[in-house]
Specification:
By secondary structure, the protein is of the alpha/beta class. The protein has helices at 3-11, 47-50, 59-71, 82-95, 108-123, 140-143, 179-194, 221-232, 286-289, 304-319, 322-340, 371-383, 409-425, and strands at residues 26-30, 33-36, 41-44, 100-105, 127-131, 160-164, 202-205, 235-239, 266-269, 280-285, 347-352, 357-361, 386-387, 389-391, 398-401.
Length: 428
């Protein structure tokens, strides 16, 4: 065990997950590559859990952070903050939500926690609908709406949460149905559930489930859900912490794959917008955002430095059409990964859209998830100079591939080849 690993274990919680048997210390990065403390270079296909959205050490973001830090680091929301107002204006406009208001937080967990506070206060109800296999953060309220037991450490909850079908297309009781019949069955389940409950505050849902293994419903499911929700007065919270900012390629927000529904009532975001800086937030219609009657501030949400980073990062993303790049290069990468895994018995499915791709592993000849294989491939990929993630339901058997959105075709080929070698090298 290296010295830093021993020191980590001596002072940090046992439940704080570390990748790899011999954990890696990343010291610096550039573009789509990072280097460890031993000077070894890796192609980064996980981006700090989908957070390094544009590129490592992006000069435009680094310059904005440095210049703002040279002026002032912190003021709090008790004072006017020009970078915060400017970023809020841009996010509100991009959100698609009419008469939008934006509240900045420091993480996706805090963003979802705020959205749940707003929805329950607005509806005067503590009942929440969430999707099975979902993940929404590690706070007490976010854990209580997480439908994935691997990431839910307590059964205690400040909310009454009811779970509905639809987040996982290829497993479960409706997997054998066509897309249209799958949607019909999930809508019927939702109707039945609402018929047995009191007033529900909101449905919170990821358009693509991140920790759950990059699973998603057929396009249009949430539009069909929205018709039911509207009849019951239930709000829709779209958790865009992982899907936002064009990562899925086809759309800027994940909810737009269900565009017949129109925009959600509340939208949460984080991760990629700060390109590594701690930025999260909630967008909501003014009537919902302004429903709180008690005082509230944020000490660190919307700090001048993180807002300057967000503005520079968002400008770069839009000016360089990184959504279009995610669609083009992501499509090539998805096709390449499907091709190189076609003869690998452990691979059940390669799925995703844009630069958000999951590779589900099973025990050969079965449909049984194989978390041991996923852990082995993660290690083998590192040996091949490639960093990836893992997730997937309760069993962590899905390899997660989510590089920065500036990924080049050559880097996509390099990563696919490394992953093929890793998949073929394991012997369990």
């Amino acid at each position: 065990m290296n010295d830093l690993h021993a020191r980590h274990r001596a002072v940090l919680p046992d439940w704080l997950t570390l990748y790899y048997d011999d954990p890696v210390e990343i010291t610096h990065g550039e573009g789509r590559y990072v280097w460890d403390a031993h000077g070894r270079r890796y192609l980064d296909f996980f981006g700090g859990i989908l957070t390094t959205m544009t590129a490592h050490a992006l000069p435009e973001v680094t310059k904005a952070v440095t210049e703002q830090a040279g002026r002032i680091l912190h003021t709090s929301t008790l004072y006017l903050n020009r970078p915060m107002v400017e970023l809020a204006e841009r996010v509100a406009s991009l959100s698609g939500i009419p008469d939008a208001r934006v509240f900045f937080t420091t993480s996706g967990t805090e963003a979802n926690d705020t959205a749940l506070l707003l929805a329950t206060a607005h509806r005067r109800s503590g009942q929440i609908l969430a999707m099975r296999n979902s993940y929404h953060g590690r706070s007490f309220s976010a854990v209580s709406v997480t439908g994935n037991r691997a990431w839910s450490p307590t059964g205690l909850s400040p909310l009454q949460t009811l779970y509905v079908h639809g987040g996982v297309r290829t497993r479960g009781p409706y997997a054998h149905l066509s897309d249209a019949r799958f949607i019909d069955a999930c809508v019927a389940d939702l109707e039945d559930l609402l018929g047995h409950t009191g007033d529900v505050a909101a449905l919170i849902a990821e358009p693509v489930q991140g920790v759950g293994g990059f699973t998603s419903p057929p396009d249009g499911l949430f539009a069909a859900f929205r018709e039911v929700l509207d009849r019951h007065g239930v709000l829709w919270i779209s958790d865009e912490v992982q899907t936002g900012w064009g990562r899925t390629g086809d759309h800027f927000w994940g909810w737009q794959a269900h565009a017949a529904a129109g925009p959600p009532d509340l939208l949460t975001f984080a991760k990629g917008i700060g390109n590594g800086m701690s930025v999260g937030g909630v967008v909501a219609r003014a009537g919902i955002m302004n429903c709180l009657t008690a005082n509230s501030i944020s000490t660190f949400g919307g700090s001048p430095v993180t807002m300057a980073a967000g503005l520079a990062n968002l400008s770069y993303l839009l000016e360089h059409d990184l959504q279009g790049n995610a669609r083009r290069v992501g499509g090539l990468l998805l096709a390449r990964l499907r091709a190189v895994t076609a003869g690998v018995p452990r691979v059940r499915e390669v799925r995703g859209r844009g630069l958000m791709i999951g590779i589900e592993l099973v025990r050969p000849g079965t449909d049984e998830a194989d978390p041991r294989a996923a852990a082995a491939v993660l290690e083998a990929a590192r040996e091949q100079g490639l960093l990836i993630g893992k997730g997937g339901g309760h069993d962590t058997s899905v390899l997660r591939v989510a590089p920065p959105l500036s990924l080049t075709v050559a880097e996509a080929e390099e990563g696919a080849a490394a992953l093929e070698r890793a998949l073929r090298s394991i012997d369990l």
